[in-house]
Design a protein that fits this description.
Blueprint: H1 17-36, H2 42-67, H3 73-106
Helix pairs in contact: 1-2
Amino acid sequence: MAHAKNHPYHILNPSIWPFLGAVSAFVMLFGAARWFHGMSPWVAVIGALGVLYVMYGWWSDVIREARQGDHTPVVRLGLRMGFLLFIVSEVMFFSAWFWTFFKHALCPMNPE
């Protein structure tokens, strides 16, 4: 009875991707800091490649789970809503960005 599926969610097995993503992001930022101080940019490049690898691996796991039928309708709805909210937040961010740019470019405020 402990392993009975009585909820609409897909319970994931432990994954290495969050840990690898954190390590890759740290290496990338550490390398960028070194690069900003005049050292070689290769550590930052290796970290960025690691981040890209983690993105590819993690999303391939999500796609594989979807193809195997592990995503229930509730999970699919959550993924769809998450993507929609991401797009909406990007539209709001860039609207605010360009609004501010054009406001200050077309109507500059002179302190005189």
